[in-house]
């Protein structure tokens, strides 16, 4: 499903194998367990100065929800139920990434479609290979409506209304170079290897800033109010801010 490796202050989560990395319930659970482990290990090491990179083996980053699994249930009603269940399971994975107390970078090493595209843009930064692969929201073509939290995530990450229209109403397939020009991703690279290397370098640079993870997470959530509201994150209170300030004071004593 996936592996988690720690290189110094950088966690590298890799979707393993040469398949399409479709997001079945088991795959979603595996990713969430890896994120939980990264969160726990960073907290045990002081909670500051970490970063996470997510990458994938093979020619796909992720081809979205596992439609083959959904359709294998034997009837249309079971397929609909399974598809709906994956949407419910994916929602807390989005919440996990947006509440992870460290910078996150996606290394899009191949096609990223539908929920695979959403998985990528849940990260703070996106590095992508330019020699092959595209990002794509396939819902309009497949005939699947968007969940409210999905629309909230896309609006939060793709503020240009014309680009947003291309993605959700036209189902346009966009390569890395064009995605950079449209402000969807951060940088394009010559190969999958170069994309991963660039993501790790960025992660190392960000980890070296020695930021307090919980404060980084608080600022991230504050910068993405629509998706955080759609996910049900409670508003930050004065008491929460006092606790965060105490973490800042603790760091100054180190």
Automatic annotation (TrEMBL):
Keywords: Lipid metabolism. It catalyses: a (3Z)-enoyl-CoA = a 4-saturated (2E)-enoyl-CoA; a (3E)-enoyl-CoA = a 4-saturated (2E)-enoyl-CoA. It holds the Pfam family ECH_1. It comes from the Eukaryota. GO terms for biological process: fatty acid beta-oxidation. GO terms for cellular component: peroxisome. Its EC number is 5.3.3.8. One of its GO terms (molecular function) is delta(3)-delta(2)-enoyl-CoA isomerase activity. InterPro entries: ClpP/crotonase-like_dom_sf, Enoyl-CoA_hydra/iso. SUPFAM superfamilies: ClpP/crotonase (SSF52096). Pathway: Lipid metabolism; fatty acid beta-oxidation. Belongs to the enoyl-CoA hydratase/isomerase family. This is Delta(3)-Delta(2)-enoyl-CoA isomerase. It comes from Dendrobium nobile (Orchid).
